[in-house]
Specification:
Blueprint lengths: L9 H9 L7 E3 L2 E3 L6 E5 L6 E6 L3 H16 L8 H17 L1 H12 L3 H22 L6 E2 L6 E9 L2 E5 L5 H14 L3 E5 L6 H12 L7 E3 L4 H10 L5 E5 L2 H13 L4 E5 L5 E4 L6 H13 L11 E5 L3 H12 L20 H16 L3 E4 L16 E4 L6 H4 L6 E7 L2 H9 L6 E5 L3 H10 L4 E4 L18 E2 L8 H4 E9 L2
Parallel strand pairs: 7-8, 7-10, 8-9, 10-11, 12-13, 12-17, 13-16, 15-16, 17-18
Antiparallel strand pairs: 1-2, 3-4, 5-6, 6-20, 11-19, 14-15
Helix pairs in contact: 2-8, 3-5, 3-7, 4-5, 4-7, 5-6, 8-9, 10-11
């Protein structure tokens, strides 16, 4: 972790960045290897367009090797056969090594995806360590059950690892999303094949190295950088993968689910897109607090969050004063150098995502929404990918910016007359990941929490977070839950053993 007594300056981080030589190979059966084809892809930094590495481009042949190694490890019980206490020691050692490499991992994350170094350190690394430690500690605290049968029988209900798990993770929180899969999958005794996004492979490869150093046996964890349409598709369709866990877009999630069904009917969990409503009732009188929270709910991580509060639903009587406050805060969040510890808004992940967001901004304007703030690409001289905080007012429910996931720093503001209308607007999208309600009326808060079709509902806050509670969505935001003990449900099977005592 960062020692605040050290020289925590942009100059120091740039100096370290110039010296970075990231590992860019696949990790298969405990060895760092190039792809079988020898193909690579260029990993470019969205900060300034610099090339970071030529990364192994894994495809179907590499997936076959990785799955075979994972299966052999599982069947030999090299990891699954270890006691909970033994697995716990390895995962705690893993967490300790991740913490010790915190600055290195944070730098890789910032260079790879453009997020501010303060967030890579203070959020991503910290939460990754917490996740690994929490699941390590949970391993030896989960008990099996005895069924309440009559005295002539003994029915044991035991939880067993599902086997070989494939995981495909996104680019917005590469390290943390990897940890959300790695920690419970390994804690439960499975073997894992992890495919990071081709936009952000570097921190996942480094995590794999650290896991081996911590004592994880070869084959228990494979890291396969590569493209979704090759490595990801092969993993989802592989006949020897027992479970596929995916985090990413809804469109890709549907493809993963289809491949799983058409192959071996493997278990699937999906955490997909969102278009989350942030409802503000006029009776909530602290508009400064709402404005601060609403601004960070959409602009944190450059808006590249599946649970971002991208739809602001405001009761008409407070719409103008609230928007004025949000705009004032947003003006202080102009994109800056991600390697400067004072920067709060960094770069978009790449040119493709930058153009996608700009296209949505153009769509909002052409469909008649009022551009209240921002809307421009900035810092062009850097060679990187930066978009300023953008706020639309006068948005109608039929507009694309009100219905589709943008995944960028773009806020769509809609007004409503009463709570009934707000709830109709909130639920009138295909997603259901997160939602929020701001009110002083306890009855309205409970009513909204029950009515909102979302996996997480925030009351008088947004993006409150803890490893102890589940995270996941309704409807086209997917199914299955990350975090908490509920994550074990995805990666374990329940077995009943019936013993006749007569």
């Amino acid at each position: 972790m960062l020692d605040q007594s050290q020289d925590n300056t942009a100059a120091r981080w740039h100096e370290r960045a110039r010296a970075v030589r990231p590992t860019a190979l696949a990790l298969i059966n405990g060895a760092l290897v190039p792809s079988q084809s020898g193909e690579t892809f260029e990993c470019m930094s969205p900060i300034d367009g610099r090339k970071l590495a030529s990364v192994a481009a894994c495809d179907r042949g590499d997936v076959d090797l990785a799955v075979a190694a994972a299966r052999e490890c599982f069947e030999r019980r090299e990891w699954s056969g270890q006691s909970p206490a033994a697995r716990k020691r390895v995962l705690l050692n893993f967490a300790q090594r991740v913490e010790a490499a915190g600055e290195e991992l944070a730098l890789l994350e910032t260079l790879d995806v453009g997020k501010p170094i303060r967030d890579s350190l203070g959020v991503d690394v910290t939460a990754t360590v917490t996740c690994l430690r929490w699941y390590a500690e949970a391993i030896d605290k989960i008990y099996d059950q005895i069924g309440p049968t009559d005295a002539t029988s003994l029915a044991l209900v035991t939880r067993e690892p599902v086997g070989v798990v494939g995981a495909i993770v996104p680019w917005n929180f590469p390290m943390l999303m990897a940890a959300w899969k790695i920690a419970p999958v390994l804690a439960a005794g499975n073997s894992l094949v992890l495919k990071p996004s081709e936009k952000s492979p570097l921190s996942a490869i480094r995590l794999g190295e650290l896991a081996l150093e911590a004592g994880l046996p070869p084959g228990a964890l494979q890291i396969l950088p590569g493209f979704g349409q090759t490595a990801g598709a092969a993993l989802a369709a592989h006949l020897d993968v027992d479970c596929i866990a995916f985090t990413g877009s809804t469109a890709t999630g549907k493809s993963v689910m289809q491949a799983a069904a058409q192959s071996n009917l493997k278990r699937v969990s999906l955490e997909c897109g969102g278009k989350s409503p942030n409802i503000v009732m006029a009776d909530f009188d602290d508009l400064d607090r709402v404005a601060r929270t609403a601004a960070y709910a959409i602009f944190f991580n450059q808006g590249e969050m599946c649970s971002a509060g991208s739809r602001l639903l405001v009761q008409e009587s407070i719409r103008e004063p609230l928007l004025e406050r949000i705009a004032r805060i947003a003006r202080t969040m102009s994109p800056g150098d991600p390697l400067d510890p004072d920067t709060v808004l960094g770069a978009m992940v790449d040119e493709i995502q930058t153009q996608r967001v700009l296209d949505y901004i153009a769509s909002g304007r052409s469909e008649g929404a009022r551009l209240a703030l921002g809307g421009q690409r900035v810092r062009r001289e850097s060679g990187g990918c930066y978009i300023e905080p953008t706020v639309f007012d006068g948005v109608r429910q039929s507009m694309r910016i009100a219905r589709e996931e943008i995944f960028g720093p773009v806020l769509a503001t809609l007004s409503f007359r009463d709570l009934d209308e707000a709830l109709r607007l909130a639920n009138d999208v295909s997603y259901g990941l997160a939602a929020a309600i701001w009110t002083r009326d306890l009855r309205d808060a409970h009513r909204a929490a029950r009515a909102l079709r979302a996996g997480v509902v925030y009351v008088n806050c947004y993006d409150a977070d803890d490893i102890t509670v589940p995270f996941g969505g309704f409807r086209q935001s997917g199914f299955g839950r990350d975090r908490s003990l509920h994550a074990f449900d995805k990666y374990t099977e329940l077995k009943t053993t019936w013993i006749d005592l007569t």
